Amino acid sequence: MNQALRRSEVDNGEYKYWSVGQDMGATAYFDKYWKPYLSGASICHTYKECNYKSNQPFSDINGTHAGAVLISETARTTFKLPDGTVVINFTSMGGQADEEGNLVDDKVSGAIYVDINGGKAPNCYGKDLFVFIRYDNGLINPYLIELEDISTRCNRQTGDGCAAKIMKDGWTIADDYPW
Predict the structure, then answer these.
(1) What pLDDT was estimated at residue 156?
(2) How far, CA to CA in Å, does 2 sit from each of 38, 102, 135, 141, 142?
């Protein structure tokens, strides 16, 4: 994703100046900024196109339903890669869409969710769903990477900081990984 972002910046200018999804629509955003730089990626217009059973398929590690919406024409682009990975690229405030995916808050956010096995179970933070943040300097890093004690968010309650733990452990799942 970092490589695709950098390549897109060469053609489209710095990320922090790009239009956002609510200005141009998710499909146009994907087609302009991401599709040319991700070989074989295809946008999902419905949750079924990405092999999910609902538009809100995710849960926290403790089993609590997470309200993140998969498809939203104005708030994010959701696409699948040839290997089955699904990427949810927030183009406006992440998590601030209603159940149908309609934008209810238009603040810009750089969240990127990566579901490494797409619609297959468990669709759970820290197990097959990992959160990354796109910064204004054009880098994509795991969510909460700046925390000193990453285990406070990569635990058996939330799991949303587990990509940061894996990165800090040299991109391996260390013996102290929570599951």
Answers:
(1) 67
(2) 11, 28, 11, 9, 12
DSSP annotation string for 93-125: -TT-B-TT--BS------EEEEETTTTSTT-BB
Q: State the Cα–Cα distance between residues 112 and 94, nearest whole angstrom.
A: 9
Tens of pLDDT along 9-67? 999 998 878 877 667 777 888 899 989 999 999 999 999 999 999 999 999 888 888 87
d(CA 141, CA 95): 19
Measured CA to CA, the distance from residue 132 to residue 42 in angstroms comes to 20
Q: Give, as one character, the DSSP assignment of residue 70.
A: S
Domain spans in the chain, listed from the N-terminal domain onward: 2-56+67-139
Which residues of the chain form beta strands (DSSP E)?
Answer: 42-43, 76-80, 86-90, 111-115, 129-134, 140-142
